[in-house]
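Sequence dictates fold. Next comes a concrete instance:
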Amino acid sequence: MAHIIDGKKISAEIRAEIAADVAKMKEGGKTPGLAVIIVGENPASKVYVRNKGKGCEEVGMYSEIIAMAEETTEAELLAKIAELNERCDIHGILVQLPLPKHINERAVIEAISPEKDVDAFAPVNIGEMMLGTAAFLPCTPAGIMELLKRSGISAEGKECVVIGRSNIVGKPIAQLLLTANGTVTICHSRTKNLAEVTRRADILVVAIGKADFVTGDMVKEGAVVIDVGMNRRADGKLTGDVDYATVEPKASAITPVPGGVGPMTITMLLRNTLTAAEKYGK
């Protein structure tokens, strides 16, 4: 029987720690502030943004949600970011992706001050992560590392396999596992004999967006399995990238979907905002 890594419980523990640190900071006269910009009417984005606002409220942070119309120009969005970069009460800036097609996402990400880039997507912060000197880390990968750490699972000396090479999850989690002294292999759509590679993994991280893709025959006995996927089946039920029913009996530890990695992402965003206020806030 695998140990179920409870992301809700671990997330709640970290939020309690953040709330305590925020309370201390407020006693000194400073409140960490997060600005979230949403452009357009994407329903999923609206839910994510609302949850980020609720998260700030829960830990005692100031949050400001800036809703901009779908037809907002790139220049208008960049001007808003420039304004937020200069504000002393805002320590973190996040632009909810995806953006409308007429706006260049990279230009927008690069416009955010690295000191306020609490998503840690900007090239400067990615470079700092590669060097092991980052003030804050991409939220979902950082959340995965916290799940491992607080579950007593070390990557040191372990064979770590990551399926997926996105800039948001796959590449950065591979780097963080490497920094933690794991031996890391990244797999993707062109990888040959995928199951042979995944069966070597002591720690397997799956982040590809394909429902129930990894099955029990692809996992070795006793592996730790981290499922980053969030997919909806035809019957409306949520499922991950891992076929839980066949993988759980073989794993030593596994994250469920929902309730595993998902709750950690906003929690790490809150921690990054706190760090930005502590390290760079005036």
About this structure: The longest strand covers residues 33-39.
